Amino acid sequence: MGREESRAERLRQQYYIERMRDAVLEETAETGRAPTYYIETLGCQMNAKDSEKLAGILDEIGYVPASLEDTADFVLYNTCTVRENANLKVYGHLGHLNSVRKKSNPGMKIAVCGCMMQEPDEVQTVREKYPFVNIVFGTHNIFKLAELMYRMRTEDRMVIDVWEGTDEIIEDLPAIRKYPFKSGVNIMYGCNNFCSYCIVPYVRGRERSRDRADILSEIRALAEDGVVEVMLLGQNVNSYGKTLDPPVSFPELLRDIEQIDGIERIRFMTSHPKDLSPELIDVLASSRKICNHFHLPLQSGSDRILKAMNRHYTKEKYLQIAGELRARVPGIAVTTDIIVGFPGETEEDFLETMDVVERVRFESAFTFIYSPRTGTPAAKMENPVPEEVVKDRFNRLLARVQQIGQEESGRDEGRVLPVLVETVNHQDSRMVTGRLTNNTVVHLYGDASLIGKIVPVRLRESKGFYYIGELCRREGQAG
Ligand code: SAH
Ligand code: SF4
Ligand code: F3S
After folding, report:
1. Residues contacting ligand 3 via CB (< 6 Å)
2. What is the pLDDT, as a whole number, of residue 106?
3. pLDDT tens, residue by residue, 86-108
4. pLDDT beneath 70, residues of the chain
5. pLDDT at residue 1, rounded to an integer
6. 9 and 149 belong to one structural domain
7. What's the CA-to-centroid distance between 271 and ligand 2, angstroms?
8. Which of 228, 238, 239, 295 is nearest to 266 (CA)?
9. Sheet strands (E) in 299-391
């Protein structure tokens, strides 16, 4: 779909937004209150970003956020299917919503969308076992929410609209940002890597990069709106722009974003080791705004397993990149994702993973037990690792990862570093909580007026995975 068609689709959706808005106004006049919505988001930053767009559409229609899920007029589940337990969570919640609907909120409408709904078997399960669900849609057509809600009002059955794939990128969707001062920005959608364990390419479709100009104008608008930190989102940001005409590289895009006034911090995820260019490390080393944090998923340290995972790099290559990052960008935090118990993983393979953990000393690592996903090549592989063996390896890995993380995270104790203050502290309302550029959490005394500001903080005490800090007023305050 070209630019013109995308614009036409946006106008078509505007029509449904207006129709729905009229209906909501009428309803509000009758009931004396605006209808409410509640969005539950599971999964990764992609889903979080999609939920902001869905909230943006609901806001345009005239819905307001509900304080509690159980009292909402419209509940939307944005699902994830990357591991089996993500799916189970959704069905548990749907059961709960059904009993709420029966007992106390008969008018509640329920929609399920996101990655899990891209799988026909899951849609079938919803259809059969959760017939009270009103709308089902997928990842490729979230911009159609108003139209689907319009259909829900007029059709007396479950509205199901799931697209198998798309080459469409709809620009200029409204969004309600969760934070006024930071925002995720999609730079690409989908994934072409087909790591053998991973469902994402099947539920998010082929890789599509957004035009550089669209990304830059979105970020400029965000900056004008008070955003100081952007997180560039893609499953494999290192291959950004390769298929654009003319091609653009990820480092080039970063250089452009660096020039935007008002943006103080740039983050990105995720970086695939196979496409990481020396140019990217150059940009990182010379940038003033790119944060001191690099998320570089390892998955496994065994060359044999990496090959079976279709990851296209070796342990050696990974170690070389991590080493270069540490050498060229002083103080950088390197974090990772690791899967334990991939089919055929031996103790020897596992020890290779542990060896990488020892050598790279990750500031933090997300560790996952391999979960077979129907339709992926790995799900058909032989030699599943017995559950007790996986659990034992997982526990050994987790213990080591946590210990190293704790040792590394205290290293800035006593220093004064900039903190972007994000929220009032959840436990102590006299305190606020923010992050260093390396993503470490810092709690400090201060009030809500600091939220969204980047302030110098003395890191008084390391508490393992976070610091207790103190606001320094003597230095020039940024932000
Ligand atoms: N695009 C990112 C990862 C997206 S999924 C990348 O390539 O790194 C986030 C993480 O979930 C992955 O890094 C992987 O560690 C984990 N994961 C994906 N599929 C999984 C599966 N089938 N079982 C267990 N963990 C999985
Ligand atoms: Fe999944 Fe691999 Fe794509 Fe990441 S790069 S989303 S792990 S297929
Ligand atoms: Fe989950 Fe979809 Fe993200 S499967 S991890 S929400 S892309």
Report:
1. 43-44, 46-47, 80-82, 115, 200, 203-204
2. 93
3. 898 899 999 999 999 999 999 99
4. 1-2, 474-479
5. 56
6. yes
7. 10
8. 228
9. 333-340, 364-369
Q: In terms of domains, do 203 and 135 share one? A: no
Q: Is 129 in the same domain as 38? A: yes
Q: 286 Cβ partners below 8 Å, 6+ apart?
A: none
CA-based nearest residue to 282, from 230, 332, 247, 328: 328
Chain centre distance of CA 95: 26
Quote the CA–CA distance of 279 and 285 in Å, as a whole number: 10
Ligand 1 centroid to residue 192 C-alpha, Å: 14
Residue 301 and residue 361 in one domain: yes
Domain that holds residue 182: 177-267
Per-residue tokens: 200: 């994402």
For residue range 201-251, what is the model confidence (pLDDT) as tens digits? 999 999 999 999 999 999 999 999 999 999 999 999 999 999 899 999 999
Of 244, 245, 263, the C-alpha closest to 254 is: 263
Q: Is the distance from CB of 472 to CB of 444 less than 8 angstroms?
A: no
One domain, residues 131 and 40: yes
Tell me what pLDDT residue 64 has: 97
**Number of compact structural domains in the chain:** 4
Does one domain contain both 307 and 346? Answer: yes
Domain assignment present for residue 476? The answer is: no
- How does pLDDT run across 116-171, given as a tens digit for each residue? 999 999 999 999 999 999 999 999 999 999 999 999 998 989 999 999 888 777 77
- Nearest ligand to the CA atom of 115: 3
- CA–centroid distance, 210 to ligand 3, in Å, is 19
* Phi, psi (rounded to 5 degrees) for 442: -130, 130
Q: Whose CA is nearest to atom 1 of ligand 3?
A: 80
In the DSSP assignment, the letter for residue 247 is -
DSSP strands (E only) in 270-322 = 293-295
Beta carbons of 38 and 76 less than 8 angstroms apart: yes
Give the closest ligand to the alpha carbon of residue 311.
Answer: 2
Q: Whose CA is nearest to atom 2 of ligand 2?
A: 195
Query: What is the pLDDT, as a whole number, of residue 328?
Result: 96
What pLDDT is recorded for position 10? 86
Statement to judge: residues 148 and 7 lie in one domain = yes
State the burial class of residue 124 (Cβ atoms within 10 Å of its Cβ: 0-12, 13-18, 19+): exposed
| CA trace torsion 419, 421, 427, 429 (10° rounding) | 120
Q: Is 220 exposed, middle or buried (0-12, 13-18, 19+ CB in 10 A)?
A: middle
**Cα(231) to centroid of ligand 2, in Å?**
18
Ligand 2: nearest atom to the Cα of 201: 8
Distance from residue 201's CA to the centre of ligand 2 (Å): 7
Q: How many Cβ atoms from other residues are within 10 Å of residue 282's Cβ?
A: 12
Residues near ligand 2 with C-beta < 6 Å? 191, 193-195, 198, 200-201, 235-236, 272
